[in-house]
User: Fold WAT1-related protein from Flemingia macrophylla.
Amino acid sequence: MKEASVVTVMLTVELLDVIVNTVSKAAMRKGMNDFVFVMYSNAFAAFFLFLVTFFFYRKTTRPPLSYNIVGMLFVVGLLSCTNQMLKFFGIGYSSPTLASALSDLIPAFTFILAIIFRMEKLDWKANSTRAKSIGTLVSIGGALIISLYKGQAMINSDLSLKLFHQKLASSMEFDWVFGAALLAAHSCFLSINFVLVTRIIREYPAELVVVLIRIALTSILSVPAAVISVKDLKELRLGFNMELIAITCSAIFVLSFSGVIHTWAMGKRGPVYISMFKPLEIIFAIILGITFLGDSLYVGSVIGAAIVVIGVYAVIWGKSQETLEEDCTAYSSESYATEAPLLQNKRMGE
Assistant:
């Protein structure tokens, strides 16, 4: 698949994540428990992926699972469950704005971990390395500008300004330090998750099976937390309402579809490439907020969005240059291996 096609798919996945997250927040505002949402969405996704995997591998041989792969999948499932819990707890103690700001650290954490585990090359003489490193820092800076700096309103909305000031006043009551620590841990664990999944999928190239096992383990591990968090077991019941729509959308589009695409892309491009698209979620959220919710557009959002796009483009360019260099090296090696015996035979004939 060409680079442009991969980028298009990744942009579509991130846009779907933002849309489904908006629907999920609407359901949670109506009183749905966060942990119950995590449990049911993962359970629905596991059931959906089980059906897809069953029909896909009905005529195809599935790679054999080793104890090493199963062990790593268990760790990934535990991290996935912990990540979702940390995110909801962190937002509860701070705010969604702080959550967006600290999630922009995911590319930095992932880049460092990928270098430590030798999944990314660090050769400062190569243009590809410089482009990826600088692009990562630039995109993080742009995303932080969007999250923390507003400036003057370019498209003003009185309702949006009123709600913003109300949220700002009420947010002072939260324990921001503790919330920030939880959200930073979420970003770090998600980066570890990216690195582990990349290693798994390169050793066990079966995206559907990997995502199915991970989601199934996450669903099982989230059951105790969901049961403990509710005051009455009746809260675990689902009805035909907004909550069911949000759970179904999250299960199919985010956990299943996006999960498989992310896992596939990690095996092809590596964990850093995937993490670089995370800051773009803020841009999509701003566009959707202005279009459908009547939010205001601020100067900081425009400047930050432009910087994020430049940073992401630099990383994509660096990654494409790295792939091109590897292809050229492989071609040179093959050419040398083919020509060497011919030269040797020619000399012997002389």
